[in-house]
Amino acid sequence: MANSGRFLVALYSALLALSSIVTAGDADTARYDNFRLYRVLIETQAQVEMLRQLEEQSDCYSFMGHANHPNQNLTIMVSPHKIAEITELLSRYNLQGTILLYNMQELIDKEQATIKPKNTPPEEFSWQFYHHLDTINDWLRYQVSRHANLQLLELNASYENRTLYGVKLSKDPSNSAIVVECGIHAREWISPASCTFVLNELLSSDREEVRHLADSYNWIIFPVVNPDGYQYTFEGDRLWRKNTKPYGICRGVDLNRNFASDWNGPGASSDPCRYDFCGASAASEPETQALTKFLIDAAGNQRIRAYFSIHSFSQLVMFPYGFTVSRVPNYDDLLAIGRKGTAAIERTHGTRYVCGAMIETIYPSSGDSVDWVYNALGVPLAYTFELRGPPDSTNMFVLPAKEIIPTSEELLAAFIAMLEESARKMSGNTGPVIRALFAIILITTLPVIKGDAAGEGAARYDNYRLYRVELATDEHVQLFQQLEAKSDSCTFYGHARQAGQQLTIMVSASKVADFEDLLTLHAVQGRVLERNVQQLIDREAATVKPVTTEPGELGWEHYYQLETIYAWMDKLAEQHAAFVSIVEIGRSYEGRPIKGVKLSRRPDRKAIVVEGGIHAREWISPATATFLLNQLITSTEPSIVELSTAYDWFFFPIVNPDGYRFTFTGDRLWRKNRKPYGLCRGVDLNRNFDSNWGGVGSSDDPCSYDFSGSSAFSEPESVAIAEFLRANVQSARIRTYIALHSYSQLLMFPYGHTEERVANYDHLKSITEKAIAALTAVNGTEFRGGSKYETIYPSSGGSIDWAYRPGGVPVSLTFELRGPPDSTDMFILPAEQILPVGMETLAAFVAIVREAARLGYYDD
Questions:
Q1: Hey, what's the signal peptide range on this chain (predicted)?
Q2: What's the pLDDT tens digit per position in 67-102?
Q3: Which residue of 567, 745, 796, 810 pairs with 753 in a disulfide if CB–CB is 3.0 to 4.6 A?
Q4: Orientation angle between helical segments 562-575 and 657-665, nearest 10 degrees
């Protein structure tokens, strides 16, 4: 029985371990799979302006610094779904650069093995590992219990009610003080690690120079002044920087932009969603308030000789100012002392640091702790350290744990040298003043990034999630309207319009934790439809035939590329020359033909136009269009033969050839055409027609998925369709226009921009009802019907609205094909569904034409 009990305990433990693994994999944490790190060399002012715009308008690019001037290097982390975009932008603006890292998540995953568990006893604290907040605080308390001259400091609570712990080491109350501030930026784990190492050395080292430091100064060390943010980097987002206080739809203030030193000046942002958001006001944050109050009190009780703020990365030793090029009065002394520190660092392990004023060395910044301490408290020696790695580091803030000890040894060596030099200068034995200006080191030659769009330069969606949320209140509607306007990392399929609405949103892997937090904070009901969109795309890739596929091999068990579809259409015209001909109605922005097929078995018949592929990512649309065309040509089923012989047909399977091609080579989920507008590319062609152009349900932002263009018919593709209809609606007697889209299982008619009903609303309602009934009878697939405005969402500038009026086509319809509105496949419909979709759509077409004929739309 005892053995059985032990077995059950062991089994239970194993199951718990397995459960924890599964939970970790499915955890609502930010991930950075295939997020890339780019290093670019800015050479021109035009490049500066482009990068500034890019940083301003998209949260999918994480800038490590800002674009300030030519002859500057800049590191940028790029979301995988923007890889194709950044590759094209670098080429278009002739920006030289290199890819430092292809997959940020690999670094984070590797680091996990070097994190000690939360319950690590303080006796086991070491510097071969990174530690949780609770472990650091426990270790501080443990050291206080062991050292009589070490006092525990407890500052007012953080936003999440955590105490800011520090310690004061004082062997002589008359000593001047050295303050070391660490962990103000949450993701910079090397900062708390190095600071605890320095404290441990001050407490236990037998080296003479270290003992001298411990004896000569009162040391005040705060290992983690941003406890909420630091904890969140372990539980939510490894690369989180700010505190966690909510501001609207976003969280967090950059505490090192929140001090009352030129607050909200250069290098700080007033946007709560930015990484350098400076807060609602100077010292608006409880962490900043607690630290400044302590420092003001400390400065009143004792002389603070030096203040060291410890950050990473870039290997810099910097002093005020960050907000102005004006030099501080003791600039030369600070430079000389700082260079003593960099020399000591290099002697320790050969690591090269650079010294200078903040604005000279890294970038402009305002509201930081070092500038405030220097100005407000008069601390003469105020420095910021940016620890390992170098500016072009591939590790960034994810410094391997094996570098903790050497990095910390370098920091301690710098402290020793700098305080020794400052003491020498204070005694008057200064020697010649060092006045050489700091020279910024630039990486002058980097290979131009040239990515193969289908591989290296293609967008990816690893661990991007698909959510379905319910907007229960007007507050929810406003919340998601703000989110869509603000975040480029959340892709909305539809717009937030009214309470009671459900909405599908794709969320970048790096924003999952933020999004989950937003749902909880605002009590929004939501569920995850798909946890990894890239898996859908990868699975689909196996069903895509290569571009070299012969036209005779085209079928409907696979998806095909533009070249194969066009070649197949040419082959049809060649094989059935008596009644099939090619119609080319224009050229795309990139010069590709917009090609169609005319099927006319008997002359002078009423005509039906079928439009496909206006939205590039909706692959089921061209697949269904080619299926229908093939059935009309080859089927012997009487109802299909009747359709084929009684009417002329114009099929345009891909009216957006550039966009469709790009979904195979650059971005599977691309929607628009490919015409550039500033930094962004593409117009939603189904918002570019002159039917209430620029109205509801369209955007004037070129970076939005439903950008309507610079004017109605600004795009060659929409112009081609409109001119074809103008030229043929009377002569070819076009009576029906059908546009094929996906997804949502809808059959709709005009209007999209108004609830006003068209003149033949009842007829169109009857036609759609008959069609839906016929479609459902084939496979049981359920569709809904009605006007676009009633059925899906308001939209303006659509092709069927224009075809109806002023185009003059009385039966104008839009299909939204499979799947349902809460589809987990979205536009990535498995190829195995092409045939059933084709068959049910064909049945709907038969019903549409029959009911339209019954209602007299094909009468002379």
A1: 1-24
A2: 999 999 999 999 999 999 999 999 999 999 899 999
A3: 796
A4: 130
